[in-house]
Design a protein that fits this description.
single chain; 399 residues; alpha/beta; Rossmann fold; 2 domains; 7-stranded mixed sheet; 14 strands; disordered N terminus; Leu_Ile_Val-bd; ABC transporter substrate-binding protein; Leu-bd; Peripla_BP_I
Length: 399
């Protein structure tokens, strides 16, 4: 009897050890507890542009995303789950983005993805849909609002087309002296071209004349020829769809040529990183503001300050694109929080679709997602460079 009892105890102990080691993906990392119930880790994939053509804005954006995930984990995670961000630099190259996407899906088994560029995001749409992975791109392409083609893509800021429409509406309402004439300056990429046709259509609709279009490369160090061609059309305004580097080139060359056109940049042309490279040529430049500047006194900055203090850093060392990345990760985490099943892509999608008028403490316009609409907002603000600093001069508005 003693031998049988010892054998039974050994078998029970072995079974208990085997059960304790099982659990699939959720047991991949050290579990946390909520109400006595152990939870696991939710993996999120991320595509960063650190070394590519848009790395000037991509680097601080990526830092903001990583910072928010670290911050939320320091608070115990979400409903007992820790969030693991699996991210790599893809250098703004579509093949590399596709390769990393496959790795995140197959090897890392992520439940959602924080993406980046327009071309790669649009190239991945069919795969994202088939794999049921919520995808938060830093691209605000109008195409991503198409729910039939992109049911798992979410926009966390006004689309490029909505930004352009709002700028055109502002021009129409504030211009004096006849029909306003507008030029469009953009790069020859999916990102650059994204809002152009919509801008032209809307301008025609509201009575604004598009008089010229010029293409300037993302890494251009000279835009003299394009600006001389534009100058012949004498536009009152020029809308820029670029990042900081090309925008600075445009502004500096325009100053050298004595061009008095009012330049207005969409969101990736706007931000503190523009100022040191554009110098005094940036004075008077107007930018679309989708996310707050760190120096704005807003309730949402409290969390950012708390996180940075824990790292021995200061808010003054960060820029608007850091805030943009922070907010994007925050919105995704809110969807995870709302999800009945936060470990699956479909569960997170349903959680995101419960978000209504999410208050971001002023860091961005409130966002709302529904089963029929994944465009979180169409609201922007405008800021003007005065004495070397962007100063916001409008409330949030749409077209």
């Amino acid at each position: 009897m003693k031998k049988k009892g010892a054998l039974l105890a050994t078998l029970l102990l072995g079974a208990s050890m085997l059960f304790g080691c099982s659990g699939g993906d959720k047991a991949a990392t050290e579990p946390t507890k909520e109400g006595g119930k152990e939870q696991g880790t939710i993996k999120i994939g991320a595509l960063f542009d650190i070394t590519g053509a848009t790395g000037d804005v991509g680097t601080p954006y990526a830092e903001g995303e990583k910072a928010y995930i670290e911050y939320i984990n320091s608070k115990g995670g979400i409903n007992g789950y820790k969030i693991e961000l699996v991210g790599q630099d893809y250098a703004y190259k579509i093949p590399e983005a596709q390769k990393l996407y496959q790795k995140y899906k197959s090897s890392d088994k992520v439940s959602a993805i924080l993406g980046w560029g327009t071309a790669d995001t649009e190239a991945l749409r069919q795969q994202v849909t088939a794999d049921e992975l919520p995808f938060f791109s830093a691209s605000y392409s109008e195409n991503l609002k198409n729910m039939k083609e992109s049911p798992y893509n979410f926009l966390t800021a006004a689309s490029y087309s909505d930004q352009a429409r709002s700028v055109l509406r502002w021009i129409k309402e504030n211009h004096t002296g006849g029909t306003p004439k507008v030029a469009l300056i953009y790069n020859d990429t999916a990102f650059g071209k994204s809002p152009i046709q919509d801008a032209k259509d809307f301008a025609k609709e509201i009575g604004v004349e598009i008089v010229d279009e010029q293409i300037v490369d993302l890494k251009a160090l000279d835009a003299t020829s394009q600006l001389l061609n534009m100058k012949k059309k004498a536009p009152d305004y020029a809308i820029i769809q670029q990042t900081w580097g090309a925008t600075a080139t445009i502004l500096k060359d325009a100053k050298k040529l004595g061009i008095e056109t009012q330049f207005i940049g969409l969101n990736w042309a706007t931000g503190e990183g523009l100022l040191p490279i554009a110098g005094d040529a940036a004075e008077g430049f107007i930018g679309v503001v989708t996310h707050a500047f760190p120096y704005e006194d807003l309730p949402g900055m409290a969390e950012v300050k708390e996180y940075l203090a824990s790292k021995g850093e200061k808010l003054e060392d960060k820029n608007q694109k850091f805030i943009q990345g922070w907010v994007t990760a925050k919105i995704l985490v809110e969807g995870i929080k709302q999800a009945d099943d936060p470990t699956s892509g479909e569960g997170i999608r349903q959680g995101l679709e419960k978000i209504k008028d999410l208050d971001l403490g002023g860091l961005a316009a409130p966002v709302t997602f529904t089963a029929d609409n994944h465009a979180g907002t169409n609201q922007i603000r405008l800021a003007k460079v005065e004495n070397g600093q962007f100063k916001v001069f409008t409330d949030y508005f749409g077209y």
